[in-house]
Amino acid sequence: MGIVTQHAIDELQTLMEQIDESLTRTFQNVHQGYPTEALVRFLKAREGDVSKAHKMLVDSLKWRIENEIDDILAKPIVPTDLYRAVRDSQLIGLSGYSGEGLPVFAVGVGLSTFDKASVHYYVQSHIQINEYRDRVILPSATRKYGRHISKCLKVLDMTGLKLSALSQIKLLSIISTIDDLNYPEKTLTYYVVNAPYIFSACWKVVKPLLHERTRKKIQVLSGCGQDELLKIMDYASLPHFCRRKVSGSSHHLQNAIDNCFSLDHPFHQQLYDYIKQQFSIHQPSGPIKQGSVHVGFPELAVEEMVLAKNLESEIQKFDNKDGLHGSFNGLKINND
Prior knowledge:
Layout: H1 6-16, H2 21-31, H3 35-45, H4 50-66, H5 80-89, E1 92-97, E2 103-108, H6 119-145, E3 152-157, H7 169-182, E4 187-193, H8 197-209, H9 212-215, E5 218-220, H10 226-229, H11 266-282, H12 302-321
Parallel strand pairs: 2-3, 3-4, 4-5
Antiparallel strand pairs: 1-2
Helix pairs in contact: 1-3, 1-4, 2-3, 2-4, 3-4, 8-12
């Protein structure tokens, strides 16, 4: 892995001083008062190569302008029933904070279906959560804990993971690529919990294709991961699917306050209220218009297409090896 030197930071800073005013303005929303930290993130994403980091950062800033990302937190998904449907099928939420003050985001990988709205709504919602994290959650944590906090932790729940979920590989690749190109180095560690046996087949294919820097961030924990996670956060900050002692769904819970995926959870209520409030500030007159924000999608790289084909091939081996031939008949990775 390339080492980010002070010389590289200084070089990139000099290059960034030459960008035009519109790029400078959107860069302020990216760095939130910590421009050096932002430069380091992009340098790390390009192995310390100043030229590549500069191109990546400028391309990202242009993407923000072209897609009006600075204003995306003023564009609510309406009506509320539609937004609730998005939340019920794209499972993500803020469960609390680590002992060091890092936000803990829970992601329901296994039970997210992405089948209640168009791709554009899911991409819009994902970017809104990213922007809310970077512009509201992280600055608030920085003030609360008295030190700069620029990263989060993610706990990935594999409960209910089925091979049919892989039909959404194209959407997941779009979201992943948007994150890789525009929000690099925002997650310190990914914790995988509640992993079923089928996860091993997928992980076997995916792991070798990941960059070493990314592989080092992923930890697969035993069971629900409670014991390990309690070493870095208190019980109240544990995602709800890490607390249970018996098997069950991480999606259907009695108490919506504990279920950080639910629209009724305080995090999502605050996020949705914030977006509607920002809409009122930006457009004080006139009703909220229904319709998704169409964000430009990055072209899926050859690597993603190869990954999809490799996953499909490995799944067939898994199918045959375990005597389950035909149980996944007809499954195709949707990546065209």
